[in-house]
Design a protein that fits this description.
By secondary structure, this protein is an alpha/beta fold. It has one domain: Rossmann fold (3-Layer(aba) Sandwich), CATH 3.40.50.1820. It contains 8 helices and 10 strands. It is globular, with a radius of gyration of 20 Å.
Length: 303
């Protein structure tokens, strides 16, 4: 595979008003390409003071139009297995797979991963404990996409993103907290519980007491979001499944909670005459299975 041996310059424009007009300051950021071999591999992406392992698959033939798909792991943080589950579909449809590992060392617990490291304690959000945006684990995705564009022949301007289990929690909140990100199709599979679009319910179960209250609900509903849950993913005693009054108000297991998340969004759209590009599928015969959800997610994106 031929690598782009060029430097990509991202220019940040900073404007400040002055009596003489507008001052312009250009701050170029250099992205050094990494060498990605054809097939599967891993590289280290440096983000702030953290080394992020990125497991990938690249096709033998990459063109300017080759698609990029991010896939986010579950709570086991096994990005390699998550990448591997998508390789057969990547070969079939000739796309690049990117599976970053959001490790416990870099982003500990559900606060660091599922909730994006937005707050020091995501279950007790406050203005005093909100982290700077660059510290959010959500903030890794966009510059990592730039790294992939700098390092391969593709020049696509958007990417698709999928998440399984805890990864589905990460991805739907990523969509909420990063409404200007360059995602195209989003597929979330079998999240344990959700942040619903409700300014009267406190984060992490709703938008209250978080920056999400400033979001455009209409804009979020315009995103191409697909929610999928297996018909057999209905165990209320599944390992790691959160139970409290707030989570159980969404249902007692993943299937009920996925339906609840989707139905609430559709009710908001109906009551406000908003268009909705969200969709929902129950996959017959599937339990909490990474491979089954991954295959279905790719079929939704490419078929």
């Amino acid at each position: 595979m031929r690598i782009k041996f060029i430097q990509i310059f991202l220019v940040t424009f900073i404007f400040s008003c002055s009596p003489t007009g507008v001052d312009f300051i250009a701050d170029p950021v250099v992205i050094e390409p990494v060498e990605l071999e054809s097939g599967t591999g891993v590289f280290i992406y440096e983000y702030l003071d953290k080394d992020i392992e990125v497991f990938y698959y690249t096709p033998e033939n990459i063109s300017q139009n080759t698609t990029v798909v991010f896939t986010m792991h579950g709570s086991g943080r096994d990005a390699e297995a998550t990448r591997n589950a998508m390789v057969s579909k990547a070969i079939e449809h000739n796309f690049i797979v990117i599976a970053p590992k959001i490790s416990q060392e870099n982003f500990s617990g559900g606060d660091g991963y599922n909730l994006g490291n937005v707050f020091e304690d995501g279950d007790n959000p406050s203005e005093a404990t909100i982290n700077s945006e660059e510290e959010w684990s959500f903030s890794i995705i966009e510059p990592l996409f730039d790294q992939i564009i700098a390092s391969t022949e593709t020049t696509v301007e958007t990417y698709h993103i999928t998440g399984f289990s805890a990864g589905a929690q990460f991805v739907h909140r990523f969509m909420f907290f990063k409404p200007e990100a360059r995602y195209d199709k989003i597929v979330i599979s079998a999240a344990g519980w959700y942040t619903v679009m409700d300014n009267n319910i406190s984060f992490p179960y709703g938008f209250k007491n978080s920056p999400l209250t400033n979001n455009s609900i209409q804009g979020l509903l315009n995103n191409s979001l697909h929610i999928q849950v297996g018909s057999l993913d209905n165990d209320p005693n599944a390992p790691g499944l959160r139970h409290n009054d707030y989570a159980d108000a969404q249902g007692l297991h993943r299937l009920e909670r996925g339906i609840h998340f989707y139905d609430r969004a559709q009710l908001i759209a109906q009551n406000n005459s908003y268009n909705s590009n969200w969709s929902f599928t129950i996959i017959n015969g599937i339990g909490h299975n990474l491979q089954g959800y991954t295959d279905s997610a790719c079929d939704l994106i490419f078929n």
